[in-house]
Amino acid sequence: MNHKTKAMLSLFLTVLVTAALAFVSIAGIGPEKLFSAANIKRGLDLAGGLSITYQTVKENPSQEELSDTRYKLQLRVDNYSTEAAVYQEGTNRINVDIPGVSDAERILKELGQAGSIYFIHGEGNIVFDYVEEGYVLTKTMEKIEAAGDVVLTGADIFKAEAVMQKSQSGVGNEYVVALTLNDGGKVKFANATRISIGKQIAIVYDGKVISAPTVSAAITDGKAVISGMENFEKASQLASTIRIGALPLELTEIRSTVVGAQLGEDAINTSLFAAAVGFACVLLFMVVYYRIPGLAAGIALSIYVGLMVIVLNVFDVTLTLQGMAGIILSVGMAVDANVIIFQRIREELATGKTVRSSMKLGFGKALSAIVDGNVTTLIAAFVLYFLGSGGVKGFAITLAIGILLSMFTALTVTRFVLNALYGIGFEHEKFYGIQKERKTLPFTKNFGKFGAVSAVVILAGFIFMGVSVAKGDEALNYGLDFKGGTSLSVTFPEELTEKLNKRLEDTVSATLSMTSEIVKVTGENTYIIKTVELSQEQRAELIHVLAADYGVDTSLIQTENISGKVSGEMKSSAIQAVIIATICMLIYIWIRFKNFNFAASAVAALAHDVLIVLTVYAVGRIAVGNTFIACMLTIVGYSINATIVIFDRIRENLAQKAEEQSLAEIVDTSVTETLSRSINSSLTTFVMVVMLAVFGVDTIQEFAIPLMAGIIAGAWSSVCITGGLWYLLESKLKRQKQELPEE
Known about the structure:
Blueprint (H helix, E strand, L loop, with lengths): L2 H25 L16 H4 L1 E8 L6 H15 L7 E5 L3 E7 L4 H9 L4 E5 L6 E4 L2 E4 L3 H6 L3 E4 L3 E10 L6 E9 L1 H12 L6 E5 L2 E4 L11 E4 L5 H14 L5 E9 L1 H30 L1 H23 L6 H30 L4 H33 L3 H33 L23 H24 L9 H4 L1 E7 L6 H15 L4 E4 L5 E6 L4 H15 L7 E5 L1 H30 L2 H25 L5 H30 L7 H11 L1 H21 L2 H42 L4
Antiparallel strand pairs: 1-3, 1-13, 2-3, 4-7, 4-10, 5-6, 8-9, 9-12, 10-11, 13-17, 14-16, 14-17, 15-16
């Protein structure tokens, strides 16, 4: 087999693999559509449903109590969805996710009733009595407990379920609630029923008697039956109530989110469309600018997308809206490694080397910059994962997976395809392009001017913050995640007139007995109602009024409720995440470059980028919420990536320094040599984010717009700030050494 035939076979196999990955990603394998995009587990913001975070009333619960509570909550939510998940967070919190439910407010109300359940006995009017509405307590639970009339508590119940059995009369069937007690409850119930034969034992939940069955015989096997149910629905409802009441720990709601299924579907469609348009633009740019290497990159990027879909399936990653943003962003970042390689190939061709030799040297010389740049971005992703939660954690996972896959496809797949294309006849240098000789630009000389521009922009941000504070507002437009409260996104059947808009304000104020902020979403019939933290009853009442008075479809209402405690934690975790990520990056760069000035310059550039983005948040009054953390750490990781490419070139040129070259000349040369890479990488990532901003839903737009500013700021600081700053630090250190007296 000759070389050309082997190359053609390699290219054919690559195209075949690409087509197979595309088919599996779209259609999947078998009737269950294994490994397809449609088979990826969706988060609540994409599937719709309910997410709620509970905190235990008890400050320091034991792990056993938490485990029992989580298990019994899981039994409870299984009634609503087979895909519901209950998991522990930290040492005193439990999260409940129920995707795909249509009546989320009703479920939220039922789950929120996590009070205590008691079985009590008494003589007639002593502790409970029958009135027209049913059985009622005649004493408070405190007095009943003090008198020793409590037979069992919820902690004694292991399981409660609705079943059908033969009726006591022997004719037909009846629905009952079957109880299974734990070992302690079994002994207690046996003793109580022995002395209560012919008497009633009342079941009390949240201070109300929900049932009062008569004891017909001593029950010693730890199993009891509550009869007299009208139908299976009533029996199931009572069983569910007992299960939720049987939680070993009392819980309070500190955060909840309700997303309509239709809103989730819209988020998927718009995000996928943004991804498709952005991906097509990036591929077109790569082919037009880099020619044959760009085509190889396009094939590698297509394989990258297919592998991403499969990996998400294999590791059962739950994809959130922010996770989708992480994938779309990582596609833009995946181009970066290819750009570094292709620029290196062009530079080698410019020195007169052959195409084959230039390709080999290009991949070899680009390796250190690619590895160092991606490792620092991975550091940001890991910090985000360990300090974030929910959608932010999902963003970190997909970003980390994307970075690892992009390195693999760039260093192996792109090389394999490029060699195959070369082998089938694309051997002439015209197919690859030659780097034109560039005039070295005086970056170090103009460092002061560049710094002044940055200082003006950053100062403008602080001025806007000060103006906001002077007007009585907060320095930044903190969202619910950072200040707590309740938000409802309400879509009306038609656009409200000015009169109806005023009526809406009056309706909300009258219903809640408080003023609220109501903001219309531009271009839509959707209004955001923001207010202080509301109870579940207040939220349900407001939703009922909106549906009754305005014909609002409740399935399209998205609600979010966050306590002040959670918002305070969000602020501290955001600061911690940025600080920890920055310190870790500083240490890594210091070790890799063996020069503290490189690390100090890089960190200063990161601070510059963060402050620039803060300016955008301040001027645009963009909501500072959950996505703020993801945005900041993405900028930190992405900016350091561009900086490292420049520092890598400075390090390389220092090793090859000619005797007559000054330090400033080396810096200027290094920045100029990497300028095309800096512009092209930033441009391709910027295009992907622009698509998110243009086509994405509101939540994604709040993430994309400051991220666009961050990409621009990162490119500016990497090219115009970091090299000059390193030169100043290095020159100062050199002067200090020269001024030291000789011993």
